[in-house]
Amino acid sequence: MGGAVSSAPAVLFLFGEHAVVYDEPGLLCAIEKRTKVKTTLSEENSIKSSVGDLSYVEKSIEKTKEKINTNKPVSLTVESEIPVGAGLGSSAAVTVATIDSVSRALGEKFEKKQVAELAYQVEKDIQEDASRSQTFTSSIGGAVRIKNDEIKHVTLQKNPEIIVGYDGGNSPTGKMVADVAELKNSINQLDKIIDSIGDICLEGVKSIEKGDLKRVGKLMNINHGLLGAIGVSSSSLDDLVWTARDSGALGAKLTGAGGSGCIVVLCKNNCKNIELSLDEKADEVFRGKMSEGLKRLK
Ligand code: MEV
Fold this sequence. Notes:
Bound molecules: (R)-mevalonate
Largest sheet: 7 strands, mixed
Strand content: 15-25%
Radius of gyration: 19 Å
């Protein structure tokens, strides 16, 4: 029996994480690090996975079967290149790839947007507060501007050169989102900061569409400062951000939920130098090559 194999990419935020949870816009980009899921029909349910936390895979199987109204047992193999809980949408990628692979193995092929929407429901069940941003970007790929359920591909004049630096740690998204909500409930001024992250994102979209990467970099730096103000940066992320800036990056910021994990760096001509400087401090450094979304491999 052949089975269905699907793969979905990691995603990073150029602008807007956390603010997207409060209906502000975000600009995201799918990158070439992927999670692959193979599903076969079998005698009983089983999951073999290189990813420790199986909650997203299990919930995805449950929701997919519910949607197509079946309870047939399936056997899954999950392989991932994406660090978990590090700001690169590992849970979105595994959720998107699982839903697509399981549904096709069970004889149903969803549109990519339907996969993304179901994946969002899975994230929402597990995290309580979640946005559609990462599941949609992972499913449809490329650079995507998202505000609630308005999703638009962004056409780039120049392909930005992106480096990702990983501090080796991870933070649960649900907890980081809950921490921001708590601060927001106790400090009124947080609303203005979240609005400003949304404004900076819109400026960032305009600048990237015009190909003004210098301005994009400056706006990324401001976005990082605002994320620090809402309490989601950390000394290890700040250290990587400043290492990249001191080596000449156009801009650098954390990506994803923060706390610990990855930064995203925009560079031009001097990317090699920046990579070498980051190599001395980071656990892992790699190029963020823009990628297509969900792939149906078999
Ligand atoms: C998490 O990687 C990104 C957040 O904006 C949460 C979400 O969008 O669901 C913090």
